[in-house]
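Thread: quick sanity check before group meeting

JM: Hey all, I'm pulling together slides for Thursday and realized we never actually wrote out the predicted structure for the chain we discussed last week. Dropping the sequence here so it's in one place. If anyone has concerns about the input, flag it before I start.
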Amino acid sequence: MTGGPVPGKRTTIRDVAKSAGVSYQTVSRALNDKGEIDTTTKQRVLDTAKRLGYRPSRFARGLVRQDSTSVGLVIPNLLNPYFTEVAAGALEAARRRDWHVVVYDTADDPDQELSTLAVLGSQVDAVVGYFGQPDDVIDRHTGGMPVVQIGRETLGSRFGEIKVDGEDGVRAAIAHLAGSGRRHIGMLDHDHDHHHDASVRYTWYREAMREHGLPTYVTGAAQSIEGGQRAMAAMLDEHPELDAIFTYNDVIAIGAMFQARLLGRRVPADFAVVGFDGLAIGSMVEPPLSSVRIDTRAVGATAIDQVSQLLAGTKPDSATIRATLLLRGSA
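JM (edit): ok, ran it. Output follows.
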């Protein structure tokens, strides 16, 4: 057994479990006077918890049943409906297991992400989500807790991972636009000033355009309807010859479509618009938005499935969600 509490570090239920030589579920049952635990083990756990100075967090006592698995879902922006749909998929999958999901919004801010990681250890049993921090930083803050990363490779770490592969979907979108006679197809990428580099979605667009021998046009856009409007206005001012636009996501696409119509472009008669994500909101605009569709519910559900495997001690295989072209009315 290990010694007493470490100054400046909050003792977690996992610390008690490690010191007592039992699972964290056993610690939870002992602390909450649940059944299925013998008297000797229960007393050992209680003595260990007292020696280490463990106390359940106010959060855990008030919001999460100690005999139930809780998962922290970390997302960069709840206002973006893509992440809302992913969260819905995770919540649905967790409910089937009688698990709890607590959502953390980092506002796409690195400092807020670090603050979120700093409090996760005492609040949940596993973490899934979108992270900008390096793997070693995430590992240090989560201390052996199961972690599933969405949208990026984990470079062989202990984490589960879910990758989104939109290459074939983007290729299909450009082929459709080129096949309908479009020759000047631009792209509104994410905000390059904020993210510094062009996105992998731009790489997919560029390669697809090369396959058809077409020139590329790109500018960055803030990930909002207003951002799409501003970027579309600037791009059409610089390149009035454009007859189609592909965008980093559906929110940008909706703004771009609004702006194109304000500038007198008929959609899709003389100007086509294709987004990326395939969100439900795309069916609520006129004309309905064509998009490279990601099964957002499957992303959330797969994350919960991987958590289940990690909690059982198994490293899950990397999962890939592949995009497909969803044609509606805008292209």
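AS: nice. The chain has 13 helices and twelve strands. The two ends are 65 Å apart (CA to CA).
JM: adding both to the slides.
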